[in-house]
Design brief:
This protein is mostly helical. The chain contains 6 helices and 2 strands; from the N terminus they run αααβααβα. It has a domain of 68 residues: Recoverin, domain 1, CATH 1.10.238.10. A two-stranded antiparallel sheet has the order 1-2.
């Protein structure tokens, strides 16, 4: 039997800083940022502004303790900003986003598009509150798409 994978006690931050390979947290974050940029597309959609989590947990299958509740939107936004914020000032600057994008398979144009979509106050930075607002908009867009999908339109292939 192969040995278990090494314990990743840094919560994936090592991968977010660019040392991970394909499927790394940084790649996943880049994909999420691109999805958020595409979903924001000027829709102006806003949803709840509470700090509470907008997702619900699923009970454990087969007994045992249920899984912990998912992190709140604000916690996810803070984690995303912290992972890209290389100077630790609490926001993502255009140069930090450009560096993150280009080191994780994106382009400077991708970084510019993401910044212009997520920077709602025009200060050329993405704050935690702007990230949280964009995550809420993305979540609402996904919920609306699922709610409007015809019943049975999604199937699982074996």
């Amino acid at each position: 039997m192969p040995p278990p994978p090494p314990d990743d006690d840094d919560g994936g931050e090592r991968q977010a800083r660019g040392s991970g390979g394909s499927g790394s947290l940084a790649s996943d974050m880049m994909a999420l940022l691109m999805t958020m940029q595409q979903a924001s597309g000027g829709s102006g959609t806003e949803s709840t502004s509470s700090g509470a989590s907008e997702t619900s947990g699923v009970s454990a299958i087969g007994g045992g303790a249920p899984p912990p509740p998912p992190p709140s939107i604000d916690d996810m936004a803070s984690s995303l900003v912290s992972a890209v914020d290389s100077d630790g000032d609490g926001s993502i600057s255009s140069s930090e986003l450009d560096s993150f994008a280009t080191s994780n398979g994106g382009t400077s144009d991708d970084a510019s598009a993401i910044l212009s979509s997520l920077d709602s106050d025009g200060d050329d930075q993405i704050s935690v509150s702007e990230m949280a607002s964009s995550l809420r908009t993305l979540l609402q867009t996904m919920q609306n798409a699922l709610a409007s999908a015809p019943t049975g339109s999604m199937s699982v292939q074996a």
